[in-house]
Amino acid sequence: KNRGPPARGRHPRPKESPKTPPPLGGGGGVPDDIARLEQLADVVRSGSICGLGRTAPNPVLSTLRHFRDEYEAHTRGICPAKKCRALIRYDVADTCIGCTLCAQSCPAEAIAFTPLQHAEIDQTLCTKCDICRLICPAKAIVVGRNARSTHV
Q1: Staple partner for 140: which of 26, 33, 88, 95, CB 3.0–4.6 Å?
Q2: Residue 150: its pLDDT value, please?
Q3: Spatial contact of 57 and 34, defined as CB atoms under 8 Å apart
Q4: pLDDT of residue 146
């Protein structure tokens, strides 16, 4: 059967492709992941047969160049922007007035409905959707570092 024209300009595949590192925002990253990202970007760039493929790793390389400190913080289990759900937790500050708006708005029912009492967030139920923080009139819901983040 005719299988079409042979592929031209194909580069030989590397004997072993670098493994894709786990997502750093998931809390499972290690410092070696940054080097593996750079290695993976180099393999994609050098192994590509078209211009688009050679430029595909540029966004990753650019963020590594300009935001390396953010990547390094994530490998230590810290999200400086406090956006990675696996690396943050929601807590209630002492300024809580006990209005229960947070409890009424929580879709995961992670905050018990206890009128006129300091609210408590059940971290095992909290989905970190941010609704409680946005609705709190006293700004008593604060985003902090997850207890799993042991590095300072």
Answers
A1: 95
A2: 47
A3: no
A4: 80
End-to-end CA distance of the chain: 63
pLDDT over 70 at 14, yes or no: no
Nearest CA among 141, 135, 88, 145 for reference residue 118: 141
Do 72 and 87 form a contact (C-beta atoms < 8 A)? no
- Compute CA distances 124 → 47, 53, 54, 73, 128, whole Å: 45, 42, 44, 24, 11
Contacts of residues 34-39 at CB distance under 8 Å and 24 or more positions apart, as own/partner, are 34/64, 34/68, 34/71, 34/72, 34/75, 37/64, 37/71, 38/64
- 3-state DSSP percent of the chain in helix, strand and coil, to 5: 35, 10, 55
Give the count of beta carbons closer than 10 Å to the beta carbon of residue 147.
8
The helix/strand/coil state of 143 is strand
List the structure tokens of 99.
Answer: 């209005």
Question: Lowest-pLDDT range, 10-19, 70-79, 127-136, 139-148?
Answer: 10-19
* Alpha helices for the chain (secondary structure H): 32-47, 51-55, 58-66, 68-75, 101-105, 131-135
